[in-house]
Write a structure and sequence with these properties.
alpha/beta; 2 domains; disordered N terminus; disordered C terminus
Length: 403
């Protein structure tokens, strides 16, 4: 009986082991099936994610490509412009003196070494205004920037600016209220473009000042027959440089007399801006169009000490990917037109060589002897941005030509 019981016990034990083995095999099989299903689910989710990324609309690239500078240095906004965002230069900062690209922190470190910073823009590009806000914020936080001048503010607003500078501008002051206090005109400079920049400057406790003369002052000069003679810049290089740029920017639609009146107006505004900056104390910054800040024939020509001045142009990319192409002294005109000697008659300019006078308008600047003065590159730094618009400004000027 005992042997029988032992036999039965062994048989039962063997059967239990087999049953347990079957259970273990079944459990392993179940685990494998679960793991296989889990991996399949992960793979499916990964495919869905990659597909969604591929199909999703691409966001605007950051102001500075992450491959160029550490993320901690990057301004925290994306491009609002949508044209030519994929150009290699977009977001990069070119330092002409060193012949290389620099990071925003390197740019700031160089800017604070100078007493006067000229910050140029294309007026209708919102990305330029965003970069300006970032630069102004960083320069103010460094403690180096004390005063800020705007081309968009003129001497008529000096009294109210003095009052606003004397008291804190609180966040509660709306842009609508600030516009009313400044008596900002509805025509001309867009308040939507500059209101936030001006309010930011007050909030940073910068001394906000006008850099421009009023339209009424310039309009009054047009009635004076001696206006052009008295206010035109002296010097062949500056005169012809301004002639070239004004002629091109107005699509070759102006008469010779109109060009020279605009040269005088430009020179007068540039000299006035320089006078304001020359009379300032401590570090100061000017916000103006790129045309005004040029070293070759802009505001710096009237600087008391130009070595203490530095400029940076915020510039839209064009067809070239070479940064040097954006810092030329001039660009060829689209259609040559003779420059008659009579243009410079009775003008208080230095003598102009016969070679220059006989050249076509596309040759004027390129034909100048380097000794004439146009030996400086226009810009110290260029910060490249996408294009805001493909608008043909010359089409808008067609009616002006017919009048």
């Amino acid at each position: 009986m005992r042997k029988m019981n032992n036999k039965r016990f062994l048989q039962g034990h063997h059967w239990a082991l087999q049953k347990r083995k079957v259970r273990l095999i079944g459990l392993d099989s179940f685990r494998q099936r679960v793991r296989s299903a889990f991996l399949s689910l992960i793979a499916a989710l990964l495919v869905m994610y990659l597909t969604a990324c591929a199909l999703a609309p691409k966001e605007s690239s950051p102001v500075v490509p992450s491959s160029e500078v550490p993320s901690s240095e990057m301004p925290s906004f994306a491009w609002q412009s949508t044209l030519q965002t994929d150009r290699p230069l977009v977001g990069k900062i070119w330092w002409q003196k060193e012949g290389r690209f620099v990071s925003p922190s390197e740019l700031l470190a160089e800017l604070v070494q100078h007493e006067v910073v000229l910050l140029g823009e294309k007026h209708d590009n919102p990305d330029h205004h965003s970069i300006e806000a970032w630069l102004i914020q960083r320069l103010a936080e460094s403690g180096e920037l004390k005063s800020i001048y705007f081309e968009m503010l003129d001497m008529k607003q000096q009294a109210v600016l003095t009052e606003l500078n004397a008291r804190p501008v609180t966040p509660e002051l709306s842009l609508v209220e600030l516009k009313a206090q400044l008596k900002w005109p509805d025509k001309g400079w867009s308040w939507e473009d500059y209101g936030a920049l001006i309010k930011q400057s007050f909030a940073l406790e910068l001394n906000v000042k006008p850099a421009n003369v009023s339209r009424e002052v310039v309009a009054g000069f047009y009635k004076d027959p001696q206006w052009v003679e008295n206010l035109a810049p002296k010097g062949e290089a500056i005169t012809l440089g301004l002639y070239h740029q004004i002629d091109v920017s107005h699509c070759l639609m102006l008469t010779e007399a109109q060009v020279y009146r605009m040269i005088a107006a430009q020179a007068f505004r540039d000299k006035n801006m320089a006078d304001q900056l020359n009379s300032g104390h401590h570090s100061r910054l000017l916000v103006a169009g790129n045309f005004h800040i040029r070293r070759d024939f802009g505001v710096p020509n009237y600087a008391a000490n130009s070595s203490e001045w530095v400029n940076i142009a915020l510039m839209e990319v064009a067809d070239s990917d070479d940064p040097g192409d954006y810092n030329l002294r001039s660009h060829k005109l689209r259609s040559p037109k003779p420059l008659a000697p009579k243009l410079l008659e009775n003008q208080p300019f230095e003598s102009v060589s016969p070679e220059v006078l006989g050249a076509g308008r596309d040759q004027v600047i390129h034909g100048l002897d380097p000794e004439a003065g146009l030996v400086l590159k226009p810009f110290d730094f260029i910060w490249f941005t996408p294009r805001w618009t493909d608008r043909d400004y010359c089409k808008d000027m067609q009616p002006i030509k017919s009048k």
